[in-house]
Specification:
Blueprint lengths: L1 E5 L4 H5 L2 H10 L4 E7 L14 E5 L3 H10 L4 E4 L4 H7 L5 E4 L4 H10 L9 H6 L27 H4 L7 E5 L11 H8 L5 E5 L5 H8 L7 E3 L6 H9 L3 E5 L2 H6 L5 E5 L21 E3 L23 H4 L3 H6 L5
Parallel strand pairs: 1-2, 1-4, 2-3, 4-5, 6-7, 6-9, 7-8, 9-10, 10-11
Helix pairs in contact: 8-9
Length: about 325
């Protein structure tokens, strides 16, 4: 049996497809499982387990489609379900199942605040596509993300300032309305006594330096732009706690034992994208500003608050958030 899974983006969404791979592998151990994504996520996908072959879209969509067509898949599980993935699979003889994105419900929820979203995690909805393979139910087990040995970080060697337990802070996010403002991070960090490692991409480095400049007597390392996604995952896996926006690193952290303290802005866990912990970790915390009539305003985010006040982030209680960090 030859099976193709498709998910082009983004970090969190891709990581949340790994339980689908796990379920297929458990049911059909001899199946050949392929995964199609964008070239930019090649490093991330080194953390996946159970995938036999990858197909990466870079420049030429036509050659990418020809590559997929030549494989003659028996089944295609489209976990992205957009115009591009439909073009990719058009004319295929494979049996195809597509993920229901619930776009109408999401629009009703974000536009008119109608409570029409099912109380179902997106992973469970991904798993529903496996009915095409005759898999009607899947035992809910934790997600897996394996950092290859070549990308594992010895934190004390890489960052000699850090000795002993530390807290990781993921300061980045693709959209500004999902990012904790730098001023709010300063409020939160001044209440945390632990060593701190800031996590993010190159675009977050300047913000990281700005945050550090407010704490001349704290041990804070800015790793933003210095680590790739797998190295950042390695640092997070060893952290006592992760404070994070609603972003990809939150979903990676859910694959480890690290405590997750997630801080939500214009989005909400009710969209089905909370950290995937089927068995739960009691120390995990979710913080969101309750009672705002404008929230959620988007299923993904904006670069500016539509209302201009950004209360969904600025009204968070910094001391309350900091107090939730594990003490052990």
């Amino acid at each position: 049996m030859k099976i193709l899974l498709i998910r082009f983006s983004s970090i969190g969404d891709i990581v949340l497809t790994f339980p689908v791979v796990k379920a297929i592998r458990k049911t059909f151990p001899e199946a050949k499982i392929h995964f199609a994504s964008k070239k930019s996520f090649e490093t991330l996908l080194l953390g996946a387990e159970g995938i036999d072959h990858f197909h990466f879209l870079s420049d030429s969509f036509s050659s990418f489609k020809n590559d997929i067509k030549s494989e003659k898949f028996d089944y295609i599980i489209d976990l992205h379900n957009n115009l591009r993935t439909r073009r990719l699979t058009f004319g295929s003889s494979a049996k195809i199942a597509r993920f229901d994105k619930l776009n109408v419900r999401k629009w009703l929820f974000t536009k008119w605040k109608l409570k029409v979203m099912p109380n179902v995690h997106v992973v469970e909805r991904y798993l529903q596509t496996l009915k095409v393979l005759g898999i009607d139910s899947v035992e809910q087990t934790g997600n897996t993300f394996s950092v290859p040995i070549s990308h594992r970080v010895n934190v004390e060697e890489r960052f000699p300032m850090i000795h002993g337990p530390y807290v990781a802070i993921a300061i980045g996010a693709q959209f500004k309305t999902k990012r904790v403002p730098k001023e709010k991070w300063v409020e939160i960090l001044q209440e945390i006594d632990n060593n701190i490692v800031l996590i993010g991409g190159e675009m977050d480095r300047e913000m990281g330096e700005w945050i550090i400049s407010h704490f001349p007597n704290k041990t804070i390392v800015n790793s933003c732009g210095k680590l790739n996604i797998l190295e950042s995952a390695s640092v997070v896996s060893q952290a006592k706690s992760l404070l994070t926006n609603d972003t990809g690193m939150m979903h990676i952290a859910a694959c480890f034992e690290t405590q997750i303290i997630s801080i939500w802005g214009n989005t909400t866990p009710e969209l089905g994208m909370s950290p995937y912990r089927p068995k739960g970790i009691k120390t995990d915390k979710i913080f969101q500003v309750e009672g705002l009539s404008c929230r959620p305003c988007s299923k993904i985010g904006f670069q500016e608050c539509p209302k201009k006040h950004f209360h969904c982030m600025t009204m968070h209680d910094a001391k309350f958030i900091a107090a939730s960090v594990r003490k052990d």
